[in-house]
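Last lecture ended with a question: if I hand you only a sequence, what can you say about the shape of the protein? Today we answer it with a concrete record. The protein is DUF4178 domain-containing protein. Below, first the input exactly as provided, then the predicted structure, then a couple of comments.
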Amino acid sequence: MRAEVAEVACPNCGVGLKALGGGRVVIQVCTHCGSALDAVDNFRLLKTHAELPRPDTPLKLGDKGRIQGVDWVVIGILGWSEAKRWTWTDHQLYSPSHGYAWLTLEEGHLIFSRAWRGAMSPTWMTERGIETAEKPPEIAARGQSYRYYETTDAKVTFAEGEFSWAVMVGDRSKTLSFMSTDAMLTLDQGPEREVEISTYPPQAETWASFGIKAAAPLRVHPLQPRRVWRDERFLSGLGAVATLVATLAWGVLQSQGNWVEPRVLPKAGGLEVEAELPITTTTGVVELRIRTDVYNAWAGIETEVTDPSGTVLFQNAREVGYYAGIEDGESWSEGSQVTSIYFRPTEAGDYGLSLSVPEGGAGEGAGGPSLSRPSLTVYEGRAASMWMLMALVLSALMAGLPLIRDWLHNRARWRGSDWSDD
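The predicted structure:
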């Protein structure tokens, strides 16, 4: 839909130009020849830019739409480029009741921006202040904290229509952006300090108000809110209940079984442990719990179990490693000094166990010192609880679904930040 307004003639090509933008317009750029006209000085010709590449936007001068309950008309279009690899389009909006605003089209996302005149703390930030900061600087405004996101140095590559500030093709603009959970503050580092606040309007609704049906963007925009699934809260609550039930069931299963005292035999060759296991029941499984003393080291443990007739029941190889330390004043650890091996006995009787440590090493390397004699604990009649443990993990993931999705979405939002801790 087009606005019914007066026209002015371009002094360069004579084409009639609609005046859409109210009394604060200072520059009008001819849509036909690219001439920049001084709207304050009787549309005097300032500069001509012919055959400029038009940005990819479905919006046109005079298009009307509704954002945040206000009717706006597109009065100007600016194309921007940073380092010839990142481009976006700004649409100057005008409302007789609310003045001027911007609607930015970036990678398929619409962003709504207006001048911000409210209080901020600190009241300003410079590029030098960003470069010398040890951590991302923050600005307090609107009862929120805005953390530094990026510095942008962009150039105007296209212009047509009317603008509330003196802008021409080739002009450059350096800005600092700070982001909160739902908005972004942008500080213009030019001679005239300007602050804008940007938000993410409902996309389909906003496009529809302009009479346009647009495809959904592929990538997450920094200001884009996370889309909540319809049954997300229900699934999370169901997962929490299932986690509680699975935890209790797993605890019951783990408590089942009897301790078995191995008959330790003299070691032969390079064996660390040679023992007989007096198994009295075939109900459940046998757990061989092996404890080691590896510390900032690893060891490869091989086990062999034979049944009462001397036939090899199975052979198994496990690697055990444990690492710990202090970094930046905080302690950390990874790995484990304990491992468990399970098998199902075929009959009651004395089972043979051979345990050896053929390799190991300090740190991540090989050939280092092997562990000292491992400690062995044996239980029989254990319930097969691995499936319950898997159910516990899956239900916990379901319960934490909103938190996981929040983390993934937040990570995607901050993906484009140029802050580095290095």
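Comments.
1. The two ends are 52 Å apart (CA to CA).
2. Confidence is low (pLDDT under 50) at residues 1-5.
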